[in-house]
Amino acid sequence: MSTLLAFHAHPDDEALLTSGTMARAAAEGHRVVLVVATDGDLGLTGAEFAGAEGELGRRRLAELQASADALGVARVEYLGYADSGMGPELYPDPPGRQRFVRAPVDEAAERLAAILREEQADVLLTYDANGGYGHRDHVRVHEVGARAAELAGTARVLQATVPRDTICRALDLVAKVYRFPADFDRDSFDRAYSARSQITHRISVIRHITAKRASMRAHASQAAAPGDADRTLAAFLRIPRPLYDVVFGREWFVDPAAAPGSPVRRSIFDEPT
């Protein structure tokens, strides 16, 4: 059996991008390790989850553990960085911690590499070069993950992503029946995630969809929002189960070491030729 280590920026990122793959690997008998860079303390949330400074971060780490339990994850680690936020302003570092995006790449990579070495990980999951939709912490996960793999000698790094044409087509369909907020930038998705031609692994997780949905539900603070705002996670969880299975029944990855034109693989542990 192999060891899979999934590296994410914030609690709840694992639920959206790799939870099905993680649940499948665990069910197949592989060891699965989940590492987050930050505690997500700058995440938006509803009044019922807001509290004193640091309280949301502690809440989100507890939700992360609940998500991991639902997926069969063997070990959860937090690298100790503070959330960098997604707004235009980068806030000062909180006492005793550094915003993840300010951390030197080699320093953060060594923290991750130490876990990779200890676990003798066979596969590391990170993000594509765009950081998915471009969050500064997601881009830094891509950079830190690549460097950590070099430091630890981890042979295979797969970048979690979504085919951008699939997202754009879905958004255009949704726009026919749903009015997006005024600040929603549809055009930004033309540059987000990865082109379909770059996908090297397409993983069916339909048999593990119950665990994936439980992982999403574990992050209750991120399904809540101030006032009447709608949250992406809450909207996903409102999708009726048959349609949810279709939408979330697959996950995608890019192997940057794969030769151009390699066949798309169906298992996370398959190596493109």
UniProtKB/TrEMBL annotation:
Pfam family, one: PIG-L
Keyword Zinc: yes
Record keywords: Zinc
Gene3D superfamilies the UniProt entry points to: LmbE-like
InterPro entries the record matches: GlcNAc_PI_deacetylase-related, LmbE-like_dom_sf
Domain of life assignment: Bacteria
Alphabetical list of SUPFAM superfamilies matching this protein: LmbE-like
Keyword check for RNA-binding: no
PANTHER family: N-ACETYLGLUCOSAMINYL-PHOSPHATIDYLINOSITOL DE-N-ACETYLASE, N-ACETYLGLUCOSAMINYL-PHOSPHATIDYLINOSITOL DE-N-ACETYLASE-RELATED
Protein name: GlcNAc-PI de-N-acetylase
Organism: Arsenicicoccus piscis
